Structures are given as structure tokens and as C-alpha cells.
């Protein structure tokens, strides 16, 4: 038996981080590379939020805090859930972690017994299945429709067994940008009402990034009867351009929240005190930069969707939210790249695209649905335009 734990053999490293690293390496070697792999806004953190962090440092708020969040941040989160989602949570129903990623992981570690199943719709955020595996559970993958990237109530129903512990929802979605309307979500929550042993983990990280007047809703709001078995997860990374600050949070039943704090107390303890004070300002302070940023994101989405749909063999649906598009490259499969390599999979497509044109994107199969690829359009508009021109040229040169 090797030194490294067997559990790790079941887990893959993050494909999105791998692509970002590869693009970085090529750049360092002098190649002209446009990286569209990373899932983070290119905007700077707003000044008022930075100022709150600097004030926290100057005021000596630099010590250990309560494990799962300072009372001021929990109060700001309760107010946010009430104001934006119509959800009533008390502070003992709130947990704060080092990013939404830790919050999701804590929830799985706190609840999964060996063999428990977790239903994950495709295309999924790369970390869900691997987190479930690390926690000792079994991911159960439900395939979405290949053009809407949404699952049907029937498919959800069919995926649930007596071993199902959680269903993970993520709307708007990373990687597809697809978001469920209130009616679509209601049809899914109706299914969950029939299965009282199943809990709902709603990853609302992209809540604020929706376009064309789309109304965001979350399961506990759409179906209040599910409130007692829903964990509503969110964070400041995406809407507030605070990816590096590492603050995520969740609201849910007090017993679950307490169990999650227990996990965190024996692993990392509190998230950065300074980042927590910055998050208080993010949630309580002015929100007007969010619609302004969204205008920019929407313009980029429209540009990218339009340009990709003009590339040979590519078909790109127009997503409701997040800052990703997830086009199909099915029309390029079987063609030959300039290197002589025949494109057999979406992984071949992204590898050849990076080698030939220096555009870094992530293969759809890493998210459980292909042949597709994910583009993050959270990057400068000129770079996006150039990247799409290169993709058009690459596709046009396939034989
Ligand atoms: C769907 C989704 N959930 C959760 C996260 C985690 O975000 P963070 O840990 O920065 O809060 C991300 C980040 O990429 C994401 O895309």
C-alpha cells in the first residue's frame, strides 16, 4: 500500500486550474496566449470594500474570531437572505467559511456516510463529484438536455434512490451559465417534496450575475416546505470581485450548521478576520456596481455568443447568467487540425486550439457533458474579440 491515501486515487485535480496553469506556462515561455479558463471577474474589488479591510487591520481586528464567522457578518448575511431571497435565517443558522468551496466541502464531510449518494446534474462545477468522493460518497450524475443544459423533473426523479442524501443545484451554472426560471425550479422542487429523505444543496454563487431581466430564485424560496432540508450556499467571490479574499457562507438548519462548524473547528478554524470585515461592507454597503458590472458582462456574452456561432462546427446557446458560455464543438469532431491530429474529443479540440492559436479554454468533459468547451468571458472585451477571431480561424482551418 502506498503512502498517499487510497481516497485520493478516486479524485482528479481541478481541470480548470490545470488549464490556467498550462496557459501560464506557455505565456512564461513567450507564447501569445489568451487565457479564458479562469472563473473570476477581471474587475477590481470595490474601493469601499478594500477600505473596510484596511480599517479592520488598523483597528487590530486581526485575531482569531468565532470559528464560523463574526456576529457582524452573520447579521449582514441574515439581512441579505431576507432582503434578496425572502429567507428568514437566525445567526445560529448561518456559517461562514474560507470561500463557498469550503462551505460546500464542510457540508458534505459533515453529512456523508460511506455509500451515500449525491445527485449532481451535468454539466457540473468540477469540484462537486470529487468533493463527494473525498467525503466517501457516491456521485450520481444526471444528464441535462444538451441545448438548454437543464435537467427535467423526470430525470431528477429517476436519479433518486433510498441512499440519496443530497441533490446539488447550481443556477446560474458554472460551466453553462444556464439558470432555472421560477417555474422550472418549482417543477424540480415538486419532485423533491415526494422524497422527504433528500436534502438540497443550492449553490447560488452566481445569483447576481443574470442578464436580460432574468429573475433569480432559490429552492427554499420557491418551495418553503423544503426550507428545513435546504442548505443555501453563497459567497462574495463573484458578485463583489472578491475571489482572493475567500469568504463564502450558507444558511440552513441549525443542527447542520453546528455540524459544519465542528468540521471547520478541527480543520481551518475561522476564515480571515480581515476578509470577514470586508465581506460585512460588501453585503451592507452600496450595491450599485453590480448592475454596472453586469452591463459589461452582458455585452461580452452577446459578443462571444455571436462570434462563436459564426465559427464552423460550433454551436453556442445564449445563457441566462454567470460569466461562462458552453458551446458544443460536435461539428468539429472527426476533422483534422493543422498539426495533422484528428479531433476525436473535446479534449483534443481544446488542446489543438491552445497549441495552434494560443487560446486556453476548458473541455466540457471535465464538467461531465461534451463534446463542449467552456469559455469564461470575465476578461477584457478586446481579448475576447481576439480569442473568438482565433477560434473562428482555427475552426475554419480544420479539414
Ligand atoms: C459553482 C461554484 N460554486 C462555488 C465556487 C466557489 O467559490 P469560492 O470558493 O470562491 O466562494 C465556485 C468558484 O468557481 C463556483 O463556480
UniProtKB/TrEMBL annotation:
Q: Does the keyword Transferase apply?
A: yes
Catalytic reaction annotation: L-aspartate + 2-oxoglutarate = oxaloacetate + L-glutamate
Key word Transferase present: yes
* Cofactor needs: pyridoxal 5'-phosphate
Give its E.C. classification number: 2.6.1.-
Q: Which lineage is the organism of this entry classified under, starting from the top rank?
A: Bacteria, Pseudomonadati, Pseudomonadota, Alphaproteobacteria, Hyphomicrobiales
Q: Which organism is it from?
A: Roseibium aestuarii
Member of which family?
Belongs to the class-I pyridoxal-phosphate-dependent aminotransferase family.
- Sample GO molecular function, one term: transaminase activity
- InterPro entries of this UniProt entry? Aminotransferase_I/II_large, AspAT/PAT-like, NHTrfase_class1_PyrdxlP-BS, PyrdxlP-dep_Trfase, PyrdxlP-dep_Trfase_major, PyrdxlP-dep_Trfase_small
This one is known as Aminotransferase
* Class of this enzyme: transferase
UniProt keyword annotations, A-Z:
Aminotransferase, Pyridoxal phosphate, Transferase
Q: Where is the Aminotransferase class I/classII large domain?
A: 32-391
Amino acid at each position: 500500500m502506498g503512502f498517499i491515501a487510497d481516497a485520493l486515487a478516486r479524485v482528479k485535480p481541478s481541470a480548470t486550474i490545470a488549464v490556467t496553469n498550462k496557459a501560464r506556462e506557455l505565456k512564461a515561455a513567450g507564447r501569445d496566449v489568451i487565457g479564458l479558463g479562469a472563473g473570476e471577474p477581471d474587475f477590481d474589488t470595490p474601493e469601499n470594500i478594500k477600505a473596510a479591510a484596511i480599517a479592520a487591520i488598523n483597528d487590530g481586528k486581526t485575531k482569531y474570531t468565532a470559528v464560523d464567522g463574526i456576529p457582524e457578518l452573520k447579521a449582514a448575511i441574515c439581512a441579505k437572505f431576507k432582503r434578496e431571497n425572502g429567507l428568514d435565517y437566525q445567526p445560529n443558522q448561518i456559517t461562514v467559511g474560507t470561500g463557498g468551496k469550503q462551505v460546500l466541502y464542510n457540508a458534505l464531510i459533515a453529512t456523508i456516510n460511506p455509500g451515500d449518494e449525491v445527485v449532481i446534474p451535468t454539466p457540473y462545477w468540477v469540484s462537486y463529484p470529487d468533493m463527494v468522493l473525498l467525503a466517501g460518497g457516491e456521485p450520481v450524475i444526471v444528464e441535462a438536455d444538451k441545448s438548454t443544459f437543464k435537467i427535467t423533473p423526470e430525470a431528477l426523479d429517476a436519479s433518486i434512490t433510498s441512499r440519496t442524501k443530497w441533490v446539488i443545484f447550481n443556477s446560474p451554472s458554472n460551466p453553462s451559465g444556464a439558470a432555472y426560471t421560477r417555474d422550472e425550479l418549482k417543477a424540480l422542487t415538486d419532485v423533491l417534496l415526494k422524497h422527504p429523505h433528500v436534502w438540497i444543496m443550492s449553490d447560488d454563487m452566481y445569483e447576481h450575475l443574470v442578464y436580460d431581466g432574468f429573475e433569480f430564485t432559490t429552492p427554499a424560496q420557491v418551495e418553503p416546505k423544503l426550507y428545513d432540508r435546504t442548505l443555501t450556499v453563497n459567497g462574495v467571490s463573484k458578485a463583489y470581485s472578491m475571489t482572493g479574499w475567500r469568504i463564502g457562507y450558507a444558511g440552513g438548519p441549525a443542527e447542520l450548521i453546528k455540524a459544519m462548524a465542528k468540521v471547520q473547528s478541527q480543520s481551518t478554524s475561522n476564515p480571515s478576520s480581515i476578509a470577514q470585515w470586508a465581506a460585512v461592507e460588501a453585503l451592507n454597503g452600496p450595491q450599485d456596481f453590480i448592475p454596472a458590472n453586469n452591463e459589461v458582462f452582458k455585452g461580452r456574452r452577446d459578443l462571444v455568443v455571436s462570434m462563436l456561432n459564426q465559427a464552423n462546427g460550433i454551436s453556442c446557446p445564449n445563457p441566462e447568467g454567470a460569466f461562462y458560455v458552453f458551446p458544443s464543438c460536435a461539428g468539429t469532431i472527426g476533422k483534422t487540425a493543422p498539426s495533422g491530429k484528428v479531433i476525436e474529443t473535446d479534449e483534443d479540440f481544446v488542446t489543438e486550439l491552445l497549441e495552434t492559436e494560443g487560446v486556453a479554454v476548458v473541455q466540457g468533459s471535465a464538467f461531465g457533458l461534451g463534446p463542449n468547451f467552456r469559455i469564461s468571458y470575465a476578461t477584457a472585451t478586446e481579448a475576447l474579440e481576439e480569442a473568438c477571431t482565433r477560434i473562428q480561424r482555427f475552426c475554419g482551418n480544420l479539414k
